[in-house]
Amino acid sequence: MASVVVEFSAQEPERLARWWADVLGWHLDTRSGTVVQPTGPGVPLRFVVSARAKARKNGVHLDLRSESHDDQNTIVERLFNAGARFADIDQSSDVPWVVMADVEGNELCVLEPRKVYADTGPVAAVVIDTSDPRSDARTMATATGMELAGERSEFASLRPPSGEGPFLEFLESESGPEGMLRVLVE
């Protein structure tokens, strides 16, 4: 069975990797490139050099899990104190999650508590913009052995068969999975 890796293109990959390792409480491994390894359920985050700076919204982002509304506020405060900033990606003002950007401008969401994400670890989901969520989810399920967890016309999600680790969520979007992050199957 193949595994999923999230790859960040960054102007300062070591700095960004160190930032993500610190905020997630994961391990920075520089033996085989710059990789942040989960210390429990999760997906590896790989960081590679990019000659260009981030210029627009990414087509892939991470959703971070919270256990309570107080925990959500604590995570937002911790991220802000570590250098993250609030971000506007045209979300409505009444969404229950908080949109932020890491130190290189990559979007992330700090989710309100959701029972479905109880066993994911700190990363609840890797969210991928796509023009065809259902088809792309089925293709990824075949490639990775992940299981379909939910599906409707504009959304599909996959879950690891173990029930632990982040979901892969595919959202209908015209832009597609472009930008400074991408999901790889290895």
Average predicted confidence as pLDDT: 92
Question: Helix-strand pattern, N to C?
Answer: EHEEEEHEEEEHEEEE
Spans where pLDDT lies below 50 across 5 or more residues:
none
Distance between the termini: 9 Å
The fraction of residues assigned to DSSP E strands is: 25-35%
The total of helices stands at: 3
**Helix percent band:** 10-25%
Sheet bearing the most strands, described?
Answer: 8 strands, mixed
**Anisotropy-based shape:** globular
Radius of gyration over all CA atoms, rounded: 15 Å
Task: Give the spatial strand order of the biggest sheet.
Answer: 6-7-8-5-9-12-11-10
Query: Helix/strand/pairing class, anyone?
Result: alpha+beta
Using DSSP, what is the number of strands? 13
Summary?
By secondary structure, this protein is α+β, with helices and mostly antiparallel strands. It is built from 3 helices and 13 strands; from the N terminus they run E-H-E-E-E-E-H-E-E-E-E-H-E-E-E-E. 38% of the residues are buried.
Description:
The chain is α+β, with helices and mostly antiparallel strands. Helices cover 20% and strands 34% of the residues. The protein has three helices and 13 strands; from the N terminus they run βαββββαββββαββββ. It has an eight-stranded mixed sheet, with helices on one face. Strands 2-3-4-1-13 form a five-stranded mixed sheet. A hairpin with a 5-residue loop joins β7 and β8 (107-110). 38% of the residues are buried.
What key attributes describe this structure?
alpha+beta; 186 residues; 8-stranded mixed sheet
Topology at a glance:
Layout: E1 4-10, H1 13-24, E2 27-29, E3 34-37, E4 45-49, E5 60-64, H2 69-81, E6 85-86, E7 98-101, E8 107-110, E9 123-130, H3 133-144, E10 147-152, E11 155-159, E12 167-172, E13 181-185
